[in-house]
Amino acid sequence: MDRRTFMKGAIVAASTPATLGAESLADPLGELFERQKAAYAADSTEWDRFSDISDAMRNTPEMRVQVGRLIIGRSESGGKITDPIYAYDEKEIRDHFAKHDHWTFFKREALSDAEMARKTREQATLFARMDAKIAEFHALEAEAERLKEECGYSDAQRRCKASSDAVKDIERLILDYVPATLEEASRKARWILDMWESSDDTYLRDDPDTLELALRSIARAAA
After folding, report:
1. Long-range own/partner contacts, residues 172-175 (CB < 8 A, 24 or more apart)
2. Which helix (H) or strand (E) holds 82?
3. Is residue 191 a contact partner of residue 170, using CB atoms and an 8 Å limit?
4. CA-based Rg of the chain, rounded to a whole angstrom?
5. C-alpha dihedral sign at 167, 169, 172, 174
6. pTM above the 0.85 mark?
7. What's the CA gap between 63 and 137, in Å, rounded?
8. What is the Cα–Cα distance from 68 to 52, expressed in whole angstroms?
9. CA 9 to CA 3: how far, in whole Å?
10. Tens of pLDDT along 7-56?
11. pLDDT digits (tens, 9 = 90+) for 148-199
């Protein structure tokens, strides 16, 4: 079963009203298969929508602030050639400024009153710059969250999680299903094999114990 064949069946299943009539009651495993196809089709739709929104979000500013410049060489005239140093979260900002606080290497008792006064002034200046960079980064975070809500990114994330969880829940029901006949055991084993060979069509690979659990439920059919 390739992805195109699987998706064709999933789209048909998704467009068919879900009814629990005599036919589905007579074939509970088949009904679970159809529910999984429909749920997967809905999940694919949500992820396609999320992908489109994510592409639009690439135009937003990168989540980083410049905290300094790195000297990488000298020009022919003797001037410094530098590259910007960026921090991508609050911890990186704090680490950068802590690394440039040379006063941490001096013990209090080794400093004169004048040196202590100088230490206080320089640290105050250094950490005031650090606080300003942290505030700048938090402002970027707030703007990013505003844009996510405005364009539907956060909502799309929530919808993707919900739709993916729905697929996983149904797949778990299939894996836990104990076949009532050898024919059902064969169909379930074939479904597992098809899903396992089409890794992008299932969440079964998320749990390394999935295959063992599925085979155990099939083995219980003989009991």
Report:
1. 173/32, 174/29, 174/32, 174/33, 174/36, 175/204, 175/210, 175/213, 175/214, 175/217
2. strand 80-87
3. no
4. 29
5. negative
6. no
7. 7
8. 35
9. 10
10. 333 333 333 444 444 344 589 999 999 999 999 999 999 999 999 888 87
11. 888 888 899 999 999 999 998 998 898 888 888 888 888 888 888 787 776 5
Closest CA to 32 of 149, 192, 152, 163: 192
Q: Which two tokens stand for residue 106?
A: 């001096």
- Name the amino acid, one letter, at 31: E
| Helix, strand or coil, per DSSP, at residue 67 | strand
Distance, in Å, from the CA atom of 200 to the CA atom of 131, rounded to the nearest integer, reads: 45
Q: Name the residue among 191, 200, 165, 144 with its Cα closest to residue 30.
A: 191
The stretch 96-101 carries a mean pLDDT of: 92
